[in-house]
Amino acid sequence: KAGVTQTPRYLIKTRGQQVTLSCSPISGHRSVSWYQQTPGQGLQFLFEYFSETQRNKGNFPGRFSGRQFSNSRSEMNVSTLELGDSALYLCASSPGLAGTYNEQFFGPGTRLTVL
Amino acid sequence: KQEVTQIPAALSVPEGENLVLNCSFTDSAIYNLQWFRQDPGKGLTSLLLIQSSQREQTSGRLNASLDKSSGRSTLYIAASQPGDSATYLCAVRTSSQAGTALIFGKGTTLSVSS
User: Fold this and answer.
1) For residues A5 and A24, is the Cβ–Cβ distance under 8 A?
2) Residue B109 contacts A, CB cutoff 8 Å
3) For residues A111 and B37, what is the distance between their CA atoms, to the nearest angstrom?
4) Mutate to test the interface with B, among A43, A60, A100 (most CBs of B within 10 A)
5) How many angstroms separate the CA atoms of A70 and B111, rounded?
């Protein structure tokens, strides 16, 4: 069974631009969560999608948004990029709503560099 | 607000040693706790998941324990090998805003020398 895939793996953008990252969950998984990882803040929860609906959101500004499609694939968008958005963005999937009992499986991440 | 702390931040051991990584959390109202491994520049690999009702989980040379009341978990690695070198992350699933979220510690970077 293929794991979680993320594209692209690396991105370089300039301040003010916008970017879209993509995540394909493990086949059969319906929940997708996004995380940002930086050296200073560590791993922080961005949001979670289940059945095309955002179910939970972390403490990030509205420039960070996402969506999920009917095939469970998810995209994350960051508008008006800032230098501080440079990070590794990780996507995780789980079989059902990432609630009380589900294990999460992570993809390899997208490394975003903002110049 | 849930906070997760991992001590030590870095650890160097010779091959063959048994070692313990520590994780503590401030709010005992968790649903589960998950240990991950992360190699440099890579994603996270799930090692063990312990539900709140469980005390420990084992997988091969790894054993994780959970003491919810004291807000602590330990990851025990037996007979360490150079291939175990990586950053180990602890995360607790806890209630947040409209649902639940995984709250991560900053990790322990392990180096095993041959």
Assistant:
1) yes
2) no
3) 18
4) A43
5) 43
Does residue B39 belong to the interface with chain A, where contact is any CB pair within 8 Å? no
First to last CA, chain A: 37
pLDDT digits (tens, 9 = 90+) for A55-109: 888 889 999 999 999 999 999 999 999 999 999 999 999 887 655 567 889 999 9
Place of tokens 């392990």: B110
Secondary structure class of A63 (helix, strand, coil) = coil
Q: Looking at beta carbons, which residues of chain B come within 8 Å of A90?
A: 43-44
Q: Are B47 and B35 in contact (CB under 8 A)?
A: yes
Cα(A105)–Cα(B28) distance, rounded to whole angstroms? 24
In the block, which residue shows the tokens 């301040």? A15
**CA B40 to CA A31: how far, in whole Å?**
26
